[in-house]
Known about the structure:
By secondary structure, the chain is mainly beta. The chain has one domain: Neuraminidase (6 Propeller), CATH 2.120.10.30. Helices cover 1% and strands 36% of the residues. It has 1 helix and 24 strands. Strands 3-2-1-24 form a 4-stranded antiparallel sheet, with no helix packed on it. The model is unreliable at 1-45 (pLDDT under 50).
Amino acid sequence: MHSLSIRNIAIAGIGLFVAACSSHGMLQSPGGTGPGASFESSAGPDITTHYVYVTNNQVGGGFYSVEYFALSANGNIAPVGVISGSSTELSGSNGIVVDTHGNMFVGNETTGTITIYRPGSTGNIAPSKILAGPSTQLYAPVGLAIDTSNNIYAAQCGGFCNGTGEPDSVVVFEGGDHGNATPVQFIEGSNTQLSGANGIAVDQARNIYVTCRGTNSVLVFDAFANGNITPERVISGSNTGISNPDGIAVDAAGNTYVVQTGGSIAVFGSGANGNVAPIRVISGGNTQLSGPDGIYVSNGVLYAANRPGNIVTEYPKGANGNVSPSAIIAGSSTQLDGPSAIFER
C-alpha cells in the first residue's frame, strides 16, 4: 500500500475554491500564479489557436505517436504536427492533455511516466520534462485529465490491466510538477472501489470521474479525495448499459460521457448516481464509431478516437441515437494508427 501526506487545502467563499499557496504541493486556484502554475510558455505556435490532439497506440503495440490537427480538420487531411520516434520516450501512450500554455502531457503505461512536450513540438524530439520516479507513485498511467489550474490527474490500472501487481489508483500532481515529484493527492485502497481504472475526467468543481472496466462502473470522487476513500457517487448497474467502459468526459453542465469500446457513447445527466439509465446514447452504423477508446467534449462538441478503425469522429452538441458525425478525420494522410486518446484545446 502506498502512503501520502496531503497538504492542507482551504475552501473559501460560497462556491468551491482551491486556495493558492506559496509552498509546493498545494493545488493552484483558477488563474493562480503560485509555484508550478506554468512552464514552457514561450515556444511554439500561438496558443490561442485550438487543435485536436490524438495519441496513437497501435493495436498490438510497437508504434506510439502524438498528432495534432487543425480544429477544422475533416477528411483525409495531414496533421499540423507529429511527435514520433525513439527520442520521444513515448511507450504504451494512452492519455493526453494540454495545459493553458500549450504544453502536451502524455501518459505512458508501459514505462510508468508522463512525458511533457513544448507547444508546437514535432518530429523525433525529446520531452522537455518528464514526471517519473519513485516519489511520483506512477506505474501505469492509462488516462489523464487536467483542470483549469493545470493540475494533472492520472488513472492507473494495475493488476487488472497489465499484471503489474500494483493496485489501481488515481494520482494528482500540481500544475508544473515534473521529475520525481510527490503527488498532492493519491487515491488507492479497497474502499475506493477502483478496479480496472481506465478513463479519467475532472469537472469544473474538480470532482474526479473514473471509469472502471472491472466493475463496469463510473466512480465519482470529491475534489479533495485522498487515500482509501469511498466514492461520492457510483454509476453502475443494468439500467446504465455500461459495458467495458474506456474514455470519459464531463461537460460544463456536469453531464458525463462514457465510451463503450463495443461501439457506443452513453451520456448521463448531472449528478447521476446508482443504477440509472443514460439520458442519451450515441450508437449505430451511421455514427461510424469503431472500437472507440478516447473521448473529449468541448463546448458541447464531442470528439471520439476510434483505435481499431483508425478514425476520429466528431458529433454536434446534443447528438443522440444513430447520428452521423459532423466531421471525420480518416485516411492515409492523417497518419492515424491506433488512436487511443483525444483532447481539444
